[in-house]
Amino acid sequence: MSLPHILSTPRTAMMLVFAAFGAVVGAFSGSIPALVRQTGITSEAFGLALTGLTLTNIVVMALGGAMSRRFAGRHVLLAALPLLAATLAVMMMAQTVMIFIVAMLAHGLVLGVTDLTMNAEGSAIEHDLQRPVFTSFHACLSASLAVFAIASSSLTIRFGPLSAAAAALAVVAAACLWGWRVVPAPPA
Questions:
Q1: Which percentage of the chain shows pLDDT scores above 90?
Q2: Cα–Cα distance between 157 and 106 in angstroms, integer?
Q3: For the whole model, what pTM was predicted?
Q4: Secondary structure element (H or E) that encloses residue 135, with its range
Q5: Is 1 helix (H, G, I), strand (E, B) or coil?
Q6: What DSSP letter does each residue of 51-96 carry, written as one string?
Q7: Residues 80-109 pLDDT 10s
Q8: Closest CA to 71 of 120, 104, 8, 109
């Protein structure tokens, strides 16, 4: 059985990738108070870890040109999205400050790879369509981030942080499936 045409376009698949990115960031954001309690991390250490997450994200994005010359964006996304879900899950399960900080830094690396690649792929899709569609990608990310930040805080209160990660994982799995089936695999 084939997908309806609208679902089988690279644009729709990329919108889902952006939504998955938003779901992961939102799930983490909505769970922060519970994660701070769960790990016992101090406010100062959490602030430094969050700064480290941002710095690792920026460093990876700065080095992204070399990666994009070696690997096709589709392949990078199909590898990065499961890693994004995995690093989120490790952060949500962390019971110690050290595991939480290491997971946050790893998460920053994968966020950077995913962010850079999804934007490059989105740009290629926009170029192929010869009309502006980037706004729809970022709208999906923003809406997903907001929904998951609110939902994850509720899920975390009721069932624990890992439940929020599981909800985000569902969107990541859908993005991987659609990306694998629909996003073209051009050369690097």
A1: 62
A2: 25
A3: 0.89
A4: helix 134-159
A5: coil
A6: HHHHHHHHHHHHTHHHHHHHS-HHHHHHHHHHHHHHHHHHHHH--S
A7: 999 999 999 999 999 999 999 999 999 999
A8: 120
